[in-house]
Fold:
Amino acid sequence: MLRGMYLTRNGNLQRRHTMKEAKDMKNKLGIFRRRNESPGAPPAGKADKMMKSFKPTSEEALKWGESLEKLLVHKYGLAVFQAFLRTEFSEENLEFWLACEDFKKVKSQSKMASKAKKIFAEYIAIQACKEVNLDSYTREHTKDNLQSVTRGCFDLAQKRIFGLMEKDSYPRFLRSDLYLDLINQKKMSPPL
Structure:
């Protein structure tokens, strides 16, 4: 997890924000900052309404500070948090949590079994490409659950990762410029 980090002269570890990280975040949030520049785009009034339906008011963004749950149920909040996690190289935690949420919606037992194996291989297996940070007990418990797949087979692992985000990434997100800019945004006055 030391990618994007460096030691200063006095030995302190500090974060190095790269242009690529900033560009990635800008691209991720681009859908919410649409401009009415392309031919055939809706008239400015409609584009403004679409924009307002995506971007939260500062009051809405303030509610995200009450709990991680309130942040994750808001589409814009989810996208902003995901962009923030990407800058910290920990987006796999949210991706795993979202994969578990999708998994719970699967109805077919055969699809559930196949999706469970895919989630385990991608996020939980040792040396997985997007391996999340789980203790050995949780990892083994989840592996055992795959013997008889149910909607709850990832519950413990999902709970642990949620707790990790809630105690670690979420407080840093609330202190980030990305979030502070949203809650301190200026109210635009309508044209006369």
